Amino acid sequence: MDDISGSTSSKNFIEQRRQSIVLDYLIATSTHGLRSVGRAYSTLNRLFWFFSFTVTCGMMFYFVISNILQYCSYPTQTKVDIRLDRRMPFPAVTICNGNPYRYDNINQSLVSYYHRLTSSNLTANQTILNSLLIPLIVDLFTRNQTDELVSIGFQLSDVLLNCDYNGIDCSNAFTVSVSPVMGNCYTFNWKASGTVFTVNDYGETLVARDGLTLWFYIPQELFFPSIWYDNGVLITLHDNDELPVPTETGIFLRPGASHLITYQKSETTFLAAPYSNCTTAVSDDLRDLYASTFLDPIASTEVVYSESLCLELCQQSYIYSQCSCIFPIPFFTRKIFTNDNVLISAKACNIFTGQIACAILARQRLVSNDSLQSKWCSRCASQCKHIDFQTTVSAQDAPSEGDREYWSKIILNPSSNVSVLLPSNIAQNFDYYFDRNYLKVQVSCSSKYTIEYNQEAKLTVIDTFSAIGGQSGL
């Protein structure tokens, strides 16, 4: 009996001791709700404070978890700055002839191509030969006849009278590239070619307007007759290492006028993962596209990622999977990735077979089907940096009387070093030819302030810990 009584007393003591420890903690704790539970003077009062503590604690955990989840969603904000850039690089300026092929040079290539197609020495009429222009261009690239491909187009010296950049002679500061649509194009201030001019680089000659000034004589009499092309030049402004795409971003300028192009530079920069899916990684097919576009291997060493070019190349990959060839427009390229991410060599579609029709249908099918684009173009993420030049174009009639008098003395002087293509009767009809073919372009920076749009993290780890500390009372 004593053993039973002793055992019960021991249990009661332990139970009371446990309650005492809990009560002492509740009274001594700095947590206001728990202290009020410990000091409650009745059961109802204790239940009230316990309920209040539970609700407020749940709210605290809700806000703490919300802060953690908000940080893990990696929110961003855009910071806009207007920065004065006295050493701003002058943009690259790419110039293409509006009608890229010389009628006198291309005719011989057309005749040779016709003879290879027909396996005969029959004489073809000019209409048939003219219809073979695009097939000839594709054939020359496919057979790697780069020299002949360049020779049938206009050289820069055929059309350029003079080049001046802030008083510096820039006639030899151009990098040549080639495309199936625009033929030979020439880029001023290309990064890989050497020195990049800035807006504050000046020569020793006084200039009326800062920037790049180009004088052209466009020999329309030698243009290849085609509904594809127009008279004049095509000019595009782009970053110094960005592949020029004149067919998409070019500005058409007509002869018989003096054109002024002013620009304002802006930069947009995105954060890399995990804040966005942008990338700067350059794939091997894009490197090959640069190498195929620029004739000088050194010029294709500076390569930057471009989402639009990646999308173009993924279209070529899909076309190849459907037609066993690639579409020869708008770029020359020799290598593409398969859907298994294997780099392979590919030939252009044959224009005289059903391959071109197959390629056109395949391209239309891809661009109109979102699931196909997701499958074939999944590697084409957005680019982390965009540099844009907002341009304003104006023009006035030219040449002026001063232009005509100045250039007549140079062009009609037998000892001058002008190499532009001139008709044999230029001396007798100078005013007619010069007024018809003269073209002047000035490219000038309208503001040395660069508008910068920078994506920034809205929350940092410190911000998140601070918010958690505030919610928990720490």
Automatic annotation (TrEMBL):
Keywords carried by this UniProt record: Ion channel, Ion transport, Membrane, Sodium, Sodium channel, Sodium transport, Transmembrane, Transmembrane helix, Transport
Q: Does the keyword Membrane apply?
A: yes
Q: How does it sit in the membrane?
A: Multi-pass membrane protein
What GO molecular functions are on record for this protein? Answer: ligand-gated sodium channel activity
Q: What is its main location?
A: membrane
Query: Matching Pfam families, A to Z?
Result: ASC
GO cellular component, alphabetical, reads: plasma membrane
Q: Any transmembrane segments, and where?
A: 47-65
Subcellular location, in the record's words? Answer: Membrane
InterPro entries in alphabetical order = ENaC (IPR001873)
Protein family per UniProt = Belongs to the amiloride-sensitive sodium channel (TC 1.A.6) family.
Name the UniProt record assigns to this protein: Uncharacterized protein
Q: Which organism is it from?
A: Adineta ricciae
